[in-house]
């Protein structure tokens, strides 16, 4: 759909209201009617712009991780760069609202879960390949890295697990960097490489 400058205020209000509802109520309990009421528009306008609740959700959490460019960086520094990027982003005054919305929603909703997989699967894989080259285990490494990044976000910012939430940012960065380094550039257990590596290798060779 082509948007005009006149539609911008209404779209901004709709997306702001949608983010509030998805954050507070999760995907399942958020309704088009509630978002429209919060934004001060007719529900038909929300449907006109976004067609459906999945369409609204995708627009509200249109997420770019803004991953750092590791080009030219010594490979041993890449994991620390990645850890600092995420912790700094999450600790900022403007917390990473889109990731928090996705985490809250992905546990119970397939649409949100698909979105998480697409965002982390695509963007983190790209970073891994920039560091290690297009190796057969890039997707496996990206998946393992994502478990750490999403796990920290879940435990520190949503569940607020006391030992994790209590860590100061620099200590958190120092703690997670060796784990990311292992997943990014270290050897992987042979058993963990089997199916994922074989599938990626077949795609790469074919």
Q: What labels describe this entry?
A:
206 residues, mainly alpha, Arc Repressor Mutant, subunit A, 2 domains
What does this structure look like?
The protein has 11 helices and no strands. It has 2 domains: 5-60, Orthogonal Bundle (Arc Repressor Mutant, subunit A), CATH 1.10.10.60; 75-205, no CATH class. It is elongated and about 55 Å long. With 206 residues, the protein is mainly α. α6 packs across α7 and α8 packs antiparallel against α10. The chain has helices at residues 8-29, 32-39, 43-50, 53-60, 78-91, 97-106, 110-132, 138-158, 162-165, 169-185, 190-205. The model has no long low-confidence stretch (mean pLDDT 84). The longest helix is centred in the middle third of the chain and has 23 residues, at 110-132.
Rg, nearest Å = 19 Å
- Tally of distinct domains: 2
Q: Which oligomeric state applies?
A: single chain
Q: What characteristic shape results from the CA principal axes?
A: elongated
Q: Please report the distance between the alpha carbons of the first and last residues.
A: 37 Å
Order of helices and strands: HHHHHHHHHHH
Helical proportion, percent range: over 70%
How many DSSP-defined strands?
0
Average pLDDT: 84
What structural category characterises the helix and strand content? Answer: mainly alpha
Q: Give the low-confidence spans.
A: none
- Describe the biggest sheet? none
Number of helices: 11
Percent strand equals under 5%
